[in-house]
Design goal:
single chain, 251 residues, alpha/beta, Spore Coat Polysaccharide Biosynthesis Protein SpsA, Chain A, 9-stranded mixed sheet, two-stranded antiparallel sheet, 9 helices, 11 strands, globular
């Protein structure tokens, strides 16, 4: 596959307030994490590693042939967990590392390649990520859907759970002016080491969005439009049923 060399890390925690043991929940007879791993293998990455703080997840990864890296239990975010993986493996500072969330069993391999290529094409950016147009007004106002606004060069101005930009005057197609952020990130390994030392941003803690720390410290995040519509992630039991149905239809 053409494009830059990159690596993939899949952070996977056992604890989940809504779905305990979420990465290991069965979908179509296999752990959800195995579906994520198998899709990540198709993206052309040099390495695909699972990062966890729980031996049960490490054991499951070994059972389906995935390398696992045991990390500390006190990381505040997936980004911090990636930084420890980079440190343990000693990856070069200029290598590109993509964070693929462990609850995305329908992740498109092409999107993983796209975000890695986007970071490679924008050396001034600390990170790269993806977005796509909001599909509805309900999505625009849903706090579980993260929105992003960009400058004219495609760099993020702000991410929020609130509907941004705010449409002051009523328009019927208000949703069309918004962009939904996809939680798929590419970083340079050297930046991940620096991220761990950065002070948390006040609004990062309010919004519960770790990428806001990067903007608060004056660094750039480039955002490109997703080449494919992403599949649904898994946060609730209903999501699990939906994904299982989609996999059954595809199979």
């Amino acid at each position: 596959m053409s494009g830059p060399e990159f690596r993939v890390v899949i952070p996977a925690r056992y604890a989940s307030s809504r779905l305990p043991g979420k990465p290991l929940l069965p979908i179509a007879g296999r752990p959800m994490l195995e579906h994520v791993y198998q899709r990540a293998l198709q993206c052309g990455a040099r390495d695909v590693v699972i990062a966890t703080d729980d031996q049960r997840i490490a054991n499951a990864a070994a059972a389906f042939g995935a390398p696992a890296c045991m990390t500390a239990v006190d990381h505040a975010s997936g980004t911090e967990r990636l930084a420890e993986v980079v440190e343990q493996f000693g990856w070069p500072p200029d290598s590109i590392v993509v964070n693929v969330q462990g609850d995305e069993p329908l992740i498109e391999p092409a999107l993983i390649r796209q975000v890695a290529s986007d970071l490679a094409a924008h050396p001034e950016a600390a990170m790269a990520t993806l977005a796509y147009p909001l599909a509805s007004t309900a999505m625009r106002t849903d706090p579980n859907v993260v929105k992003v606004v960009l400058d004219r060069e495609g760099y993020a101005l702000y991410f929020s759970r609130a509907p941004i930009p705010f449409v002051r005057d009523h328009v019927d197609d208000a949703a069309a002016v918004g962009l939904r952020h996809i939680g798929l990130y590419a970083y340079r390994a050297g930046f991940l080491g620096r991220y761990r030392a950065l002070e948390a941003a006040p609004f990062e803690q309010l919004e519960k969005l770790e990428q806001l720390r990067v903007l608060w410290h004056g660094m750039k995040i480039h955002v490109s439009m997703a080449a494919h519509m992403p599949g649904p992630g898994v946060d609730t039991p209903d999501d699990l049923l939906q994904v299982e149905g989609l996999l059954a239809d595809a199979g």
